[in-house]
Design a protein that fits this description.
By secondary structure, this protein is an alpha/beta fold. Among the domains are: 188 residues, no CATH class; 160 residues, Rossmann fold (3-Layer(aba) Sandwich). It is built from 19 helices and 11 strands. The chain has a 6-stranded parallel sheet with strand order 2-1-3-4-5-6. Strands 8-7-9-10-11 form a 5-stranded parallel sheet, sandwiched between helices. The longest helix is centred in the first third of the chain and has 43 residues. It is globular, with a radius of gyration of 29 Å. The N terminus is likely disordered. Keywords: Glycosyltransferase, Golgi apparatus, Membrane, Signal-anchor, Transferase, Transmembrane, Transmembrane helix.
Length: 501
């Protein structure tokens, strides 16, 4: 009996052990499956308010996540490395350094620029500057499903600069065409047909609207359907396109703290502006379209006006090419005057507009496209609060004396306008990408916020089964950008007479 009893007892113990192991095994399987399921959910829907950069919950990122494509290097990094091809006459590689800010201005520009944060920044580096800021953006996410918007870091200006002299339109369109084709194959693009995507162009958008069938200047990037659905930020937008928006040209001061900005604004308030007006620029062979020659002529006849002199141009190899003004001289001139004249540049806008605002000088515009219908995200809708408008036809036809117009503005009004200009300074700067603990919103912050708002409207419209109509192509496109909050109807506008000039 003992053998039988022992065998029965052993079998019972074996049974209980097996049962226990089975329970443990199934528990482990269930737990593992649960983890995998939770992990999969986390990848498709990360926890709300989670900042992928800090790894900690961040309520401020709710609705502000940006997904940035990791593009093949030929669309950006390779173009920047090949910077010597950007210009046949100028060493553009000196501008690519420091994330597109260029070389530091170490002497403080002779007092016209701060000793820290001043750079010899070239206007065509905007794509590089924006990309550097986005890499440091506090709400960057690796999950496109969690993103409010999707950023495409394509260096369109670099590509066009390298092939602009090629008479073959197909060759100029080769990389833009590849960029568009690459995008439409991406699941991130197909989610909304690119309507939640945006990119930056260091070019006037006119240069990216060349008819692919008939040729002309520039390339055809912005004519492709994949790009037409996107939001395009450029330092000069077309008033007649519905998907492009103007953002500030980069100037020369890139602060890394709120204190630097406050100190700069205080200095601009305290300057002794001994001149009534000035013009920082040269003549143009098309002056009949811009009024530059007439501006220079009026300024030379006045004791209350100043121009950039010959000493403002340096021919030193590796610094500035012949005909290029040094930042310190230009800023010193702008800081010396109450009003700074801003005619059209090579196109409707010019970098000097934002140098002028940085200098606390009241801009005087000759055409509404130079600023008023361009930078609606940055400048007050009531242009009279911060600027003066003198129609260029009056200047070109010698029907207006610039000095007489400016002299009639009461001193109290001048002081109010200058204070408004100084208030605008933080939002038109591009701060240091790696700056920490900064509270002020710079040009990058404003642009990203407005793009997010625009895409949110498109998402709401799609959820309601309709197309968001926040703008149109054609003559009236610029009027949509000037609508006040709550307005939906457009009509006659005071700028109508100037929009065909």
């Amino acid at each position: 009996m003992k053998p039988f009893s022992w065998s029965t007892e052993r079998c019972a113990r074996t049974f209980y052990v097996a049962a226990l192991l089975s329970v443990v095994l199934w528990a482990l399987i269930f737990y593992s499956t649960s983890l995998q399921s939770q992990s999969g959910d986390a990848l498709s829907k990360p926890p709300a308010f989670f900042s992928s950069r800090s790894g900690r919950p961040d309520p401020s990122c709710a609705g502000r996540y940006v997904y940035m494509y990791d593009l093949p290097p030929r669309f950006n990094a390779d173009l920047a490395r090949d910077c010597r091809r950007l210009s046949a006459s100028t060493d553009m590689c000196r501008h690519v350094v420091n994330d597109g800010f260029g070389a530091p201005i170490t002497d403080g520009g002779g007092g016209s620029l701060p000793e820290s944060g001043a750079y010899a920044t070239d206007q065509y580096m905007l794509e590089l500057i924006f990309h550097a800021r986005m890499r440091q953006y506090e709400c960057l996410t690796s999950d496109p499903a969690a993103a409010a918007v999707v950023y495409v870091p394509f260096y369109a200006e670099f590509d066009l600069a390298m092939c602009i002299d090629n008479s073959d339109i197909s060759a100029r369109n080769a990389l833009p065409r590849d960029m568009a084709d690459w995008l439409v194959r991406r699941p991130e693009w197909r989610a909304m047909g690119g309507r939640d995507h945006f990119m930056v162009a260091s070019r006037p958008t006119w240069d990216l609207l060349c008819d692919p069938n008939h040729g002309g200047y520039g390339n055809s990037l912005m004519t492709y359907p994949a790009i037409r659905n996107m939001t395009v930020l450029a330092f000069e937008a077309s008033p007649w396109q519905g998907n492009d928006f103007g953002v500030p040209y980069p100037s020369h001061f890139h602060p890394s703290s709120d204190a630097q900005v406050v100190a700069w604004q205080s200095r601009m308030r305290g300057l002794d502006r001994r001149r009534l007006w000035c013009f920082a620029g040269g003549s143009r062979h098309e002056s009949r379209k811009t009024g530059r020659n007439q501006i220079i002529e009026q300024c030379r006849r006045s004791s209350r006006c100043a121009l950039l002199g010959k000493e403002a141009v340096t021919k030193s190899p590796g610094e500035y090419t012949q005909g290029e003004y040094s930042p310190s001289h230009a800023m010193r001139l702008l800081e010396s005057a109450e009003f700074c004249i801003q005619p059209r540049g090579d196109s409707y806008t010019r970098k000097s507009i934002f140098d002028t605002i940085l200098a606390g000088c009241i801009p005087v515009f000759l055409h509404p496209i130079s600023a008023y219908v361009q930078y609606t995200w940055y400048l007050p809708r009531d242009y009279r609060t911060y600027s003066v408008f003198i129609p260029q036809s009056d200047v070109i036809g010698r029907n207006a004396s610039i000095e007489e117009v400016l002299s009639k503005i009461p001193p109290a009004k001048v002081a109010q306008m200058r204070e408004e200009v100084i208030r605008l300074i933080p939002a038109v700067m591009y701060r240091e990408p790696a700056a920490k603990g900064v509270e002020f919103k710079d040009a990058f912050d404003v642009a990203v916020g407005r793009v997010i708002d625009r895409v949110a409207k498109r998402r709401r419209a799609a959820a309601e089964g309709r197309e968001c109509r926040d703008s149109v192509d054609g003559y009236d496109s610029w009027k949509y950008d000037l609508l006040e909050d709550g307005q939906t109807e457009i009509g006659p506008h005071e700028f109508d007479p100037y929009m065909s000039m």
